[in-house]
Amino acid sequence: MENEQRKLEAEVLRIDVFESYLYTKYVVCYWGRLSQRYHVKEMLMKAFLAVSTIVVAAGLIFGGQIPKAWKMVSGISAVTAIIHLLINWQKSMSDAKGLGSALIPIVSEYKMLWSDVQSELSLDVLKPRYKQLMEKVDLIESQYPEKFLKFKKKLMIACQDQVEASMGN
Asked: Which of 63, 81, 90, 154 is the residue whose CA sits 20 to 30 A from 163?
């Protein structure tokens, strides 16, 4: 009876470790991709601001009186500059990159733990290591605002597919 209980505990731990390993890989992928998205948005916004500033300056230099088109470009540029200041994609990019980077070593630790689970090391050795890894992930994720941790569905699916592909599924 006790042997059956240990086998059941080992199987539950095996499933938990594997799922946590996949989750951590997925989260690293997700935050890395989200950081890249914010970077692209930031660069596009800056490029638009640069081009619109040049257009407005050229209109002022060469246009004499400012026609409606120049006024419109100038207004859109001003609104975009204000939105750029309010959105702060730079901070979001930095937070996403920081969270993903902080979890990269945890993925390696989960990989080693998963290897040890597959080699059927003692539960007395594996359980504390698993608990410690879960606590590390919780600690890292607790350092970020909850609203930041809300996932974007399309990106989430793409990262799940990437993790599945990396695991050979």
From this structure: 90
